[in-house]
From TrEMBL, chain A:
<keyword id="KW-1278">Translocase</keyword>
<keyword id="KW-0472">Membrane</keyword>
<keyword id="KW-0547">Nucleotide-binding</keyword>
<keyword id="KW-0067">ATP-binding</keyword>
<dbReference type="InterPro" id="IPR027417">
    <property type="entry name" value="P-loop_NTPase"/>
</dbReference>
<feature type="domain" description="ABC transporter">
    <location>
        <begin position="3"/>
        <end position="202"/>
    </location>
</feature>
<dbReference type="Pfam" id="PF00005">
    <property type="entry name" value="ABC_tran"/>
</dbReference>
<dbReference type="GO" id="GO:0005524">
    <property type="term" value="F:ATP binding"/>
</dbReference>
<protein>
    <submittedName>
        <fullName>Heme ABC exporter ATP-binding protein CcmA</fullName>
    </submittedName>
</protein>
TrEMBL record, chain B:
<feature type="transmembrane region" description="Helical">
    <location>
        <begin position="47"/>
        <end position="68"/>
    </location>
</feature>
<feature type="transmembrane region" description="Helical">
    <location>
        <begin position="124"/>
        <end position="152"/>
    </location>
</feature>
<keyword id="KW-0812">Transmembrane</keyword>
<comment type="similarity">
    <text>Belongs to the CcmB/CycW/HelB family.</text>
</comment>
<feature type="transmembrane region" description="Helical">
    <location>
        <begin position="159"/>
        <end position="178"/>
    </location>
</feature>
<keyword id="KW-1133">Transmembrane helix</keyword>
<keyword id="KW-1003">Cell membrane</keyword>
<keyword id="KW-0472">Membrane</keyword>
<dbReference type="Pfam" id="PF03379">
    <property type="entry name" value="CcmB"/>
</dbReference>
Amino acid sequence: MRLAAEALSGERGGEVIFSGTSFAVACGEALLVTGPNGAGKTTLLRILAGLLRPAAGRLALDGGGEEWPDVGPACHYLGHFNAMKTALTVEENLVFWQRFLGQARMTVSEALEAVGLEDIEHLPFGYLSTGQRRRAAIARLLISYRPVWLLDEPTAGLDRASEGRFGQLMRGHLREGGMIVAATHLPLGLEGAGELRMGEEAT
Amino acid sequence: MFALYLREVRLGVRAGGGALTGVLFFLAVVAVIPFGVGPDLDLLARIGPAVLWIGALLASLLGLERLFQADREDGSLDMLLIADGRHMLALSVFVKCLAHWTANVLPLVAVAPLLGLFMNVPPVGLAAATLTLLIGTPAITFIGAVGAALVVALPRGGLLVSVLILPLSIPVLIFGVAASRGAVAEPDPFLPPFLILTALTLFFAVIGPAAAALALRNAD
């Protein structure tokens, strides 16, 4: 499987933010999207997820077969928001996402253990700290299988230990043949990851 | 899909008690009418079903603008949009509407007979008004979903939703009231307006979620 973008350009509010961005990610590879604020990292990820239309260019997921015809259905998108309901408990949130997203992989308790939240699964999501909320959102990546992970500032709010644990999870995903496209300012601990610098060729 | 329904109902019941707000508003609207109109029992009985319908219509508009806004604010809406390939977005919207109706509007239908007593509506009229509300209010929710989807990106869209969807819900109101009056007032028929009301609900159950899905996909 191969995720390829050709001469992609994105716009927000009628203004072109980036243009002519091309890259390719194969199975087991990661791509770090870096660049200053406003360079269009989030816009790029949202275009990849199918939430925004590209202003120009082409985007394709080759070799996904019938199961993964397009990037959208084949991806986990971890955006700025955690997509969890504050009134429900951590466990209820994750059980819902597992049943809704399908393709179950880990059980909810396994996933919570993997992110170190096994003791607080019964708490309402609203009671959690910022870092704990982020870890619960990361657990969503684990409970159902998607070959492509689109991560937008995934480690925002995480402490050092959780960052390390998340690095392991990402490496595990790559070993299994997954792909990761991550927008970040911080090193994620992924050796050999490609880097896409945004916001430089535009100036 | 059933998981989505369960989650939405659970949220509706647990977070903030939107159902109680609606019921209290409904009670307030219906309870002040006899004071305004005066103690003419025949008149109250005659306008009773209409008052019940108007009260339920206005009460069911409360909270509609939050239908998608809450999901947008916490990022769940992005997930629903991305999951479009697996669960058709219009179907997700349909399920959300059903859940919203169960948690917020069904209680209004349940208290309608009780409030009808305020208006001196005879038992047959109470039964007819409740039945027409049960059949007709889903249509308002489906219409409301379109309005809620259109204003999802606006921070204060509440009033705009009401203004957008009230004209569309007028036919529902007309046939709902006509059917409930037909059950009591002798020459008027009950079945024809009731069947049209049912048709309206079925019609909007198809059009509403599809239109709302289209609006959500183009929200930003």
